Amino acid sequence: MYVAVKGGESAIKNSQELLAEERRGDKNVKELTLDQIQNQLSLSLDRVMAEASLYDRELAALAVKQSCGDLVEAIFLLRAYRTTLPRFGTTVPIETANMSIRRRISATFKDLPGGQVLGPSFDYTHRLLDFSLAANGDVPEAMEADGTVDRNMPRVTDLLNNEGLIEEETAEDDNEPFDLTRESLKFPADRPARLQNLARGDEGFLLALAYSTQRGWGRNHPFAGEIRMGELSIEFIPDELGFSIEIGEITITECQMINQFKGSSDIPAQFTRGYGLSFGHNERKTMAMGIVDRALRTRELDEHVQAPAQDEEFVLSHSCNVEASGFVQHLKLPHYVDFQSELVTVRALRGEANIDKTNIVKPISDIAATE
Fold first, then answer.
1. How far apart are CA 222 and CA 211, in angstroms?
2. Spatial distance between the Cα atoms of 25 and 227, rounded to a whole number of angstroms
3. pLDDT tens for residues 200-210?
4. Alpha carbon distances (Å) from 282 to 199, 311, 333
5. Fewer CB near the terminus (10 Å): N or C of the chain?
6. End-to-end distance of the chain based on CA atoms, in angstroms?
7. What Cα–Cα distance (Å) separates residue 45 from each residue in 38, 75, 134, 233?
8. For residues 226 and 105, is the Cβ–Cβ distance under 8 A?
9. Contacts of 76 (CB under 8 A, 6+ apart)
10. Alpha carbon distances (Å) from 6 to 132, 332, 333, 359
11. Nearest by Cα to 52 from 34, 77, 69
12. Residue range 322-353, pLDDT digits in tens
């Protein structure tokens, strides 16, 4: 139970003014612009857009600036704004095979049709502080690659599928797709609903769950079949036209995880899939998502649930950092009445315990000694 705090309005106003002052920092330092955030903190924006379910780099930059760089708070701000936007319709499903590739790697095949494209990544850095950045030194321009990157690269899973070594993906029906931003999640959830939930789930939570499965809590140690990142055109079919038009371009990261499956009486031994897809350059998130997606497929693959990452309700109900943050941080609100009632209960229990101690029957030896 919450109670009103008298005289709190002026205190709250002062708190907000102090926050604005702290956000601005030293006024002798030039204020951070949205363009600077978009261009130099791009990975932060990608996480905010992914977990807020809204692709808008300028608004994501504003949210990061307003939240003083607190990404969970920025995600909260952007989600709240998204709820005010009208919904005009659904875009044409994207085809990631048509991605304009900037990065594409596989841990399963060295020689791939189209080749490995390392692209921008921390994977090949030495993890040493670069003090030239502190001096605002110029970054050397990247060397031009030899040749051009093939726009249409076949998926690694397609190569396995040609031999029947990996499960086939079933085509979705033509019904209106489930929308987690407008409909409540129900259990048991189908895979599209689970993937939506994971796509906007907290990266740290999914990362920890993915790590747990690799350490034995779920028997899920996959191969990274393919990770690709690049740009995709988004198309929409207006009712008045009846044909699709391109309305923009977004950056997408996709991860295909490959897991061994012993098979059953109905299904021969083959590889199974774990899938991750996210806005922006979000490799760690999509890899964790792909691992957890496979862990959650226990029901459809007739596997036994043995670990937290395989428990659908546990994972999906606690993956949202906005809900989790709100539930934890609401403890900062006044709970005076609740606590006072608990205090009365504890004091009463202690009083009863003291009374009981005074009424304990003395041992016969003590009674004899007193006589």
1. 11
2. 39
3. 999 999 999 99
4. 10, 25, 34
5. C
6. 57
7. 7, 9, 22, 20
8. yes
9. 322, 325
10. 53, 17, 14, 46
11. 77
12. 999 999 999 998 899 999 999 999 999 998 88
Residue pair 333/5 in contact (Cβ under 8 Å)? The answer is: no
Q: Which residues pair with 100 in a beta bridge?
A: 231
Q: What is the pLDDT of residue 251?
A: 97
CA distances from 181 to 67, 160, 331 (A): 23, 35, 26
Signed CA dihedral, 278, 284, 287, 292: sign only: negative
Here the tokens at position 11 are 């205190």
Is 0.70 topped by the overall pTM? yes
| Among the ranges given (39-53, 88-102, 141-155), the one the predictor scored with the smallest mean pLDDT | 141-155
Paired strand residues for 234: 248
The torsion angle over the Cα atoms of residues 25, 26, 27 and 29, rounded to 10 degrees, is: -110
At 183, the amino acid letter reads E
CB-neighbour burial class of residue 236 (10 A; exposed 0-12, middle 13-18, buried 19+):
middle
Is 80 exceeded by the pLDDT of residue 94? Answer: yes
286-311 as b/e, with b when 16 or more CB fall inside 10 Å?
bbbbbbbbbbbbbeeeeeeeebbbbb
